[in-house]
Amino acid sequence: MGRRGGHQIRRRQQRGFSLIELIVVIGIIAVLLGLLFPTLAGTRASSKSIVCQSNMRQIGVAMAAYANENKGWLFPPDDGNFTNLAPVNHRWPSILMHTPPPADQTSTDPKDWTPKVALCPADDENPNEHHSYVVNGHLVEKKVRYFSSNFGGPVNNSDVVVMGEKITTENDYYVETSAAGTSDYDTVVEHHRHGIRLKSNVLHLDLHVDNIEPKQIEKCVDPWDVLPKVEPVISD
Predict the structure, then answer these.
(1) Is 3 inside any structural domain?
(2) DSSP state letter for 90
(3) d(Cα 3, Cα 15) in Å, to the nearest integer?
(4) What is the largest CA-CA distance in the chain?
(5) Is there a domain that residue 40 lies in?
(6) What are the residues whose beta carbons fall under 8 Å from the beta carbon of 167, sequence distance 6 or more?
(7) Which label site among 45, 109, 153, 193 has the fewest CB atoms less than 10 Å from its CB?
(8) Does pTM surpass 0.70?
């Protein structure tokens, strides 16, 4: 009895998991991973959106400094237009952020002249013209500057967009109105870089950043456009 009982106990102790038990364990692990991965993905997306917002705030601070020295303009008003890009060493990201020139100052590669803050971490590693953000050229068209406050419509400076996110495959640096009266807003502005929930980030004239774009105002060509200011315009 003692010997037989000892053999039975050892056999029970040496018995491994059955196939059914392994399947159950694997199934539980799969369920847990399925619950965990979306959470991790959401956390990564939120982190990238936060870094993007930080980039925009830094650019906003640089815009305020630029405005103080350039009659209120938040960015260069005449460097590039609807059809032409400015020279690679004279585009608004490098001008605003005072980007040091590369070792090879004859380089025509935008990557050599573009500050890292002009790249959204959720964008492609090498977007067209190596920048992720596009500024609102309508502000130049309507002569809206940093100190502007009356826009002739039901908006204030916290509603007016200064900068947003660019579609990766686009080259443009400005959202503008063409001579024909059409806007390139629909082909240039990225609306969901950070996903359906987080959408894309937007910098406003009061220099706060959020992911809420204004509704289009009647008689404006797109949601970034504003009506002409009522206040007197300061001459250039």
Answers:
(1) no
(2) S
(3) 19
(4) 109
(5) no
(6) 187, 188, 189, 190
(7) 109
(8) yes
Domain that holds residue 168: 50-236
Helices (runs of H) and strands (runs of E) counted in the chain: 7, 5
Q: CA-CA-CA-CA torsion for 46, 115, 188, 164, nearest 10 degrees?
A: 50
Rounded-to-integer distance, Cα 184 and Cα 106, Å: 31
What is the domain count for the chain? 1
Specify the higher pLDDT residue, 58 or 83.
58
Separation between Cα atoms, residue 198 and residue 41, nearest integer Å: 13
Q: Determine which of 30-39, 42-51, 102-111 has the lowest per-residue pLDDT on average.
A: 30-39
* Residue 85 CB burial class (10 angstroms; 0-12, 13-18, ≥19): middle
Cβ contact 212:202 at 8 Å: yes
In a domain, 2, yes or no: no
Distance CA 57, CA 233 (A): 27
